C-alpha cells in the first residue's frame, strides 16, 4: 500500500495517477483498435473524452440533487475535485448519453465502435486494480490461507492482487482477439462478460463491499445483470453482423489527416491507370 509519494514539496496521489495512466493507455489502445476496424481513432478518443467529461458533470449534479445541503453553505464546492461527492449512477447515465450523442453526430457505427472500446475498457480495469493495491481500498475478508496479506490489523485475502491478475488476463485475451475482431460488437460483449465474471469472483472475497437487503453485494448484483445482458445479446449479434463495411484505415491519432492521405493515394492510383 502506497497511497502517496512525496517528491520534494509535492505530494503525488499514486492511486489517482494510476487511474490517469490507465485512462491514457486505454485510449491509445482503443484508437489503434479503431484503425484496425476502419474507424477514425481520433473520433473514438473524442467519444471517450465526451463520455467521461459529461459523466463527471452529471455525477456531481446528481449528488447535488440528492444532497443539496452539502453545497448550500459552500456552492463553489460543486467544482471541487473530491470524488466522494459524485453520484455514480447519474454519472453513468450522463456519460452514456453524451457518448451516444457524439457517436451519432460523428457517424460512428455502434457495434464496431464498441469493439474499438474493448481494449480501453480492459486496460482501465487493470489500472483500477493497481489503484486499489496502492490505496489499500477494496481489501479482502480475513483468511488463514498462506497467501493472505497483513492489512488493516488482520491477515486478509489479497483481493486487490486477485483483481489485477484476473483483469490482466482479460486484457491479454482482448489483445489477442482484437486482431481478429469483425466489428460486430462481440469483442466488446465478451470483454464486458469477462470483466463482470471477474467482479463476481473478487467481490466474494472482499471485506468492504456495499451490501443491501441483508447482505446482497451491490457490485455482484450489477455484475450479474451485466453478464445476463451479455448472454442475451451475444447470439443475436453473432448471427446478425451489422451492415457496415470498414473504410480504408486512417491514422489512429490523426483521423482526418489519414483520410485525406488515403483519398490522395486513391486519386494517384486512378491517374496511373
Enumerate the strands of the largest sheet in spatial order, edge to edge or round the barrel: 1-2
Shape: globular
The whole-number mean of residue pLDDT values reads 87
- How far is the first residue's CA from the last residue's CA? 65 Å
Number of domains: 2
Element order: H for helix, E for strand: EEHHHHHEEHHEEHH
Give the count of helical stretches: 9
- In angstroms, what is the radius of gyration? 21 Å
Helix content: 55-70%
Q: How many strands in all? A: 6
User: What class would the helix/strand composition place it in?
Assistant: mainly alpha
User: Biggest sheet, in brief?
Assistant: 2 strands, antiparallel
Poorly predicted runs are: 248-259
> What share of the residues does DSSP label as strand, in percent?
5-15%
Characteristic key phrases:
273 residues, mainly alpha, 2 domains, two-stranded antiparallel ribbon, two-stranded antiparallel sheet, 6 strands, globular
Please give a quick description of this structure:
The chain is mostly helical. Helix content is about 65%, strand content about 5%.
Textual characterization of the structure:
This protein has helices spanning 14-36, 41-66, 69-72, 88-105, 110-135, 159-178, 186-203, 218-239, 255-272; strands at 4-7, 10-13, 149-151, 154-156, 211-212, 216-217. The chain has 273 residues and is mostly helical. It has two domains: 40-108, no CATH class; 110-241, no CATH class. It has a two-stranded antiparallel sheet with strand order 1-2. The N and C termini lie far apart (65 Å).
